[in-house]
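Running this now, will post back.
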Amino acid sequence: MSPFSSKLIPHFDTIRALRRKRKTWREVQAELEKQDCKAAISSIYEFFKRHSRRPAPLGWEEEEAKAVPTPTKPTAKKPKFNFNKEDSDILE
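Update: finished.
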């Protein structure tokens, strides 16, 4: 563990599972204390919020995790306008 790593990282899956079961942050804190991980409720909440969006701090990602290509949206094609005999009368 690097000097800036959170002690909550190994418990992220546990926290996520408890929150999916609709457990309160106080209940999550109690469960972590059973696993010998003491942390304030606010610290657990802030860690979970940040870690859910970005698992590693900027610059600390694994090489494989960096440079994930984002898919591009296909451009919309212009609809073709088919002329028929009725339309050609309008154009004249």
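Residues 1-55 form one domain. More later if anyone needs it.
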